């Protein structure tokens, strides 16, 4: 009985050692990117599908899947503490959305000389060719007869921060969206500079003559 047990024990040890040796041999590979021998390939990689091909696994047969409803894309976190570029833009591309943005959306960027100068640089690169150096709407392509005058900034009553941002976000009239060229912080800095143009060139309220003050 003792002898049989020792034989079984010896065979078990030999099998374990052999298995360990085989495992060590097949696992050795000079390529650091290689996973070694794949004992269950289906667990390592799924079957590939051609983009936009038919996939019978899904009820709609589309291999390219849409994001789960309610998914928030990276960089679009509501009420984020990480800056203006991590917030969701809540106003739709409609007339109602434009008016709502004008009433409730305010510039979160500090009105500093540095931010306004950065806005000026962006204005020269992205806006001046249409809107003109002073915002009068007489840019170079307007002067060349390529496009109609978009109108001066200071002639547009009620042109608020929110309305300007909304227009840059979606586009308005002949102007396309600038959301792909400028991030949210850059668009707000542009708004700062345009507001400085309006303050500089817009109509000034004339003071009432001293002898009429308080009189009806």
Compose a concise summary of this entry.
This protein has 216 residues and is mainly α. The chain is built from eight helices and two strands.
What do you see in this structure?
This protein is mainly α and 216 residues long. The chain has a domain at 84-201: Cytochrome c-like domain (Cytochrome Bc1 Complex, Chain D, domain 2). The protein has eight helices and two strands. Strands 1-2 form a two-stranded antiparallel ribbon. A hairpin with a 2-residue loop joins strand 1 and strand 2 (175-176). The protein starts with a helix and ends in a 15-residue tail after the last helix. Mean pLDDT is 81; it is low at 205-216.
Sheet with most strands: strand arrangement? 1-2
Helix content: 40-55%
**Structural Rg:** 33 Å
Structural class: mainly alpha
Distance between the termini: 125 Å
CATH architecture of the domain at 84-201: Orthogonal Bundle
Which fold does the CATH topology of the domain at 84-201 refer to?
Answer: Cytochrome Bc1 Complex, Chain D, domain 2
Instruction: Specify the overall morphology.
Output: elongated
Q: Please provide the ordered H/E string of secondary-structure elements.
A: HHHHHHHEEH
What is the CATH top level name of the domain at 84-201? Mainly Alpha
Main sheet properties: 2 strands, antiparallel
Number of helices: 8
Q: Provide the CATH superfamily of the domain at 84-201.
A: Cytochrome c-like domain
Low-confidence spans: pLDDT under 50, at least 5 residues?
205-216
Number of strands: 2
């Amino acid at each position: 009985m003792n002898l049989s047990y020792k034989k079984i024990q010896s065979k078990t040890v030999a099998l374990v050692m052999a298995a360990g040796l085989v495992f060590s041999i097949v696992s050795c590979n000079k390529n650091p990117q290689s996973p070694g021998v794949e004992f269950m390939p289906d667990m390592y990689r799924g079957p590939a599908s051609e983009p936009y091909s038919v996939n019978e696994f899904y009820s709609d047969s589309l291999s390219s899947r849409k994001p789960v409803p309610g998914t928030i894309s990276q960089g679009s976190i509501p009420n984020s503490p990480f800056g203006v570029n991590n917030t969701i833009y809540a106003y739709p591309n409609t007339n109602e959305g434009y008016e709502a943005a004008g009433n409730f959306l305010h510039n979160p960027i500090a009105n500093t000389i540095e931010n306004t100068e950065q806005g000026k640089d962006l204005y020269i690169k992205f806006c001046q060719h249409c809107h003109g150096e002073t915002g009068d709407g007489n840019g170079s392509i307007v002067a060349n007869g390529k496009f109609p005058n978009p109108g001066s900034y200071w002639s547009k009553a009620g042109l608020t921060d929110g309305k300007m941002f909304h227009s840059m976000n979606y586009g308005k009239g002949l102007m396309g969206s600038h959301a792909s060229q400028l991030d949210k912080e850059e668009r707000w800095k542009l708004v700062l500079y345009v507001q400085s143009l309006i303050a500089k060139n817009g109509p000034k309220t004339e003071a009432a003559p001293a002898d009429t003050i308080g009189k009806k």
